Amino acid sequence: MKVIILGAGRVGTSVAESLVGEANDITVVDIDAERLRLLQDRLDLRTVTGSASHPEVLKQAGVEEADMILAVTQNDETNLVACKLASILFNVPTKIARIRAADYLSHPEIFTPENFCVDFTICPEQILTDHIVKLIEFPEALQVLDFAGGLVKLVGMRASPDGTLVDKELQNIRKHMPSVDTRVAAIFRKGRAIMPERDTVIESGDEVFFIAASQDIRMVMSELKRMDKPIRRIMIAGGGNIGSRLAKSVERNHQVKLIEFDKASCERLAASLSSTLILHGDATDEALLEAENIDEMDLFCALTNDDENNIMASLLAKRMGARKVISLINRSVYVDLLQGGDIDIALSPSQVTIGTLLTHVRRADVSAVHSLRRGAAEALELVAHGDAKSSRVVGRRMDELDLPPGVGIGAIVRGKGNEHAPPKVLIAHHDTVIEPDDHVIVFAINKKLIPKVEKLFQVGMGFF
Which of the four, 56, 142, 295, 415, has the lowest number of CB atoms within 10 Å? Predict the structure, then answer.
């Protein structure tokens, strides 16, 4: 697939890194020549220096032969114009635009073929906000990912010594929860991936990813770790796009305090938020945190644009008594160093966002993609098409599938559903048979295995 990425910022670079090793022809366009040079030194791709909204620059990038453009510059207007040009001048089949302004997103008619010709929009700030809201809802989790429109969840959490299933074989799950069907998709132990078997033993400290119907998630979580008290009091450091969105999302049901350094931004936030207490100051100011009772906070979220400030504020808040801290960290090397230490969850914006983009790039019929373990692993929701003759998966039992080592199927969602017959969630077992149009949730412990998974789900020519 020939893909043109407009913008070599954090989102564009992250997408390029994910796609370049998967037999894709990638070209990246940016106005910053030095940034492109550094990117080309690391990755096997083409670069073009220039404005993404100029037709001649798009031509230099090869837009006439492109299958897709990803317009992910920092400027909404540039992204919109680039998609319009790609459609009316070059007839590019798929156009994806990064849109940050809520005002644009609240008017979907802007993106129609009659206007800016955007096929799909992404808003990294909103994706990240939704991700944090799920972590607030499930405070014991490291990641909470939705599939099949929320019918199925994949949850990652760290097993603790007080967990009922810790130091026991996985085959004991059914004995402990006879009324709940679940499957452990993968275990990461000291950074090493383990594909679970019936006799695999969960150890304290393991990072366990399991899949279950959404209504059963809390029961499964309680088997791996004692459930925490619900999060009621939240302090947010940073009133930018993410901090303000998060405060607006949770202020109705939580007590929220937001610290912002810029006075003008404080005034703007006070006008737009209804019950959040806005504090003008520095989130690394120990006296301010103490005065605002940081030791009573259930959650401290450091969401400024500065990695170092986020790290220092989170470490300080944890030391002063905050029950749980989440830190937004853009540099992936920092994320790997800090995750699971004094900072409970280190969030990489690019890794949280990447799945939404990959959903539209994967070669099979993909409904959802989620990046896991800071991009090392991946989970996909693929739709099975064809029949037993044209498909390698339809009509076959799980134990008959030619799955690459390191790939497992966690669950199947069957049926489109209506008010009389909702879709069925089936946890995958050895004798489960895949039927046409099933949504199959696949876990790969290494994202390099994804092309093999896509090929497995592609339909033979006989189907057409």
Answer: 56
Task: State how far the Cα of 204 lies from the Cα of 195, in Å rounded to an integer.
Answer: 17
Tell me the residue type at 174: R
pLDDT for 142-158, tens place per residue?
A: 889 999 888 999 999 88
Distances (CA, A) of 455 to 124, 272, 362, 450: 29, 48, 10, 9
Gap between the Cα atoms of 75 and 55, Å rounded: 17
**pLDDT tens, 305-315?**
999 999 999 99
pLDDT digits (tens, 9 = 90+) for 113-135: 999 999 999 998 999 999 999 99
Instruction: List the one residue out of 408, 333, 404 whose CA is nearest residue 374.
Output: 333
Give 201's DSSP letter.
Answer: B
214: helix, strand or coil:
helix
CATH ID of 233-349, from 3.40.50.720, 3.70.10.10, 1.10.472.10, 3.60.15.10:
3.40.50.720
Q: What are the Cα distances from residue 436, in Å, to 136, 252, 395, 414, 419?
A: 37, 43, 8, 9, 22
Q: Token match 């459609």: residue?
A: 87
Contact 326, 318 (CB under 8 A): no
Please check whether the two domains, 140-212+359-464 and 233-349, share a CATH topology: no
Can you read off the two tokens belonging to residue 153?
Answer: 């969840």
Residue 419 burial (CB < 10 Å; 0-12/13-18/19+)?
A: exposed
Q: Do residues 396 and 388 lie in contact, with contact meaning Cβ atoms separated by under 8 Å?
A: yes
Which of 280, 276, 299 has its CA nearest to residue 291? Answer: 280
